[in-house]
Structures are given as C-alpha cells and as structure tokens.
Design a protein that fits this description.
133 residues; alpha/beta; 2,3-Dihydroxybiphenyl 1,2-Dioxygenase, domain 1; four-stranded mixed beta sheet; 2 helices; 20% helix; 26% strand; VOC_core; VOC family protein; Glyas_Fos-R_dOase_dom
Length: 133
C-alpha cells in the first residue's frame, strides 16, 4: 500500500463557518459534524477536519488545492464575492491579482481564521515559466 494523506485538522475560530467558507469556494460539500470536527472532503479523499479552538492558539497554515482549470474562474469569482483578500504570490506583494505559474492559473486567499489558502490549476514545476498576469 502506498502512503496517502487521509485527513488533517484545521484549527479555526468557528468550525462551521470555516468549513462552509472553504466548501463554498471549492464547490464541495460540508460533511456531518463528527465529534469536535466539521469535515470537508476533497476529490482525492483527503478530509480537512475543522475544529474550533481558542483564537489565540491559531497558527496560520497554508493549504493548497489543485483544481481543474475549467473550474478556476468560478472558484475565483466566489473568492472575490466572499470579500476575502487575495494575492498572486505567497509574499502578498501582488494583491488583487492571479498568477499564471507553469502556464496555469493560481491565487492565494485568506480564510476567516487567517489561514492562507491557495488554488492552482497546475502543480509547481509542471509547465511553462511563470508569467505575470
């Protein structure tokens, strides 16, 4: 059996709000509450289990999602509609832009608990040199 990531716990201010935010952006479903967690399962079976914790203990993390190119524009529209900040780069030096890394599309955005989310249509290093959008 190969090793696969099965799930990860995402600490947040409000488990339901954070799970719904991400599920809405990605076009996924929020699962049923399971103990202290609200799960969101990705297409490859990895579950992000959102857990409410003391906001002072949250350390912002980065979560990147490889998404179909044909779904990128709809997801990006939902990011803009949500009012979340977004950037073309991980250093947040290019606000309100997307990137064209590896010939695809990508954008970084902040979730309600300050986690740094990212959607990309091509894995890093898989294609053309980055182009500025």
């Amino acid at each position: 059996m190969s090793v696969e990531l099965n799930h990860t716990i995402v600490h947040c201010r409000d488990r339901q709000a954070s799970a719904e935010f991400l599920a809405t952006i990605l076009g996924l479903k929020v699962g049923a509450v399971w103990g202290p967690f609200v799960p969101v399962e990705t297409g490859n079976g990895v579950t992000l289990d959102f857990a409410t914790v003391d906001p002072e203990t949250i350390t912002p993390q980065h979560y990147a999602f490889l998404v179909p190119e044909e779904d990128f524009e709809a997801m990006f529209a939902r990011i803009r509609e949500s009012g979340a900040g977004y950037w073309a780069d991980p250093h947040r030096s290019r606000p309100n832009e997307i990137n064209r890394n590896d010939g695809g599309y990508g954008v970084y955005f902040e979730d309600p608990s300050g986690h740094y989310m990212e959607i990309i249509t091509r894995p890093y290093g898989s294609g053309a040199a980055p182009a500025r959008s």
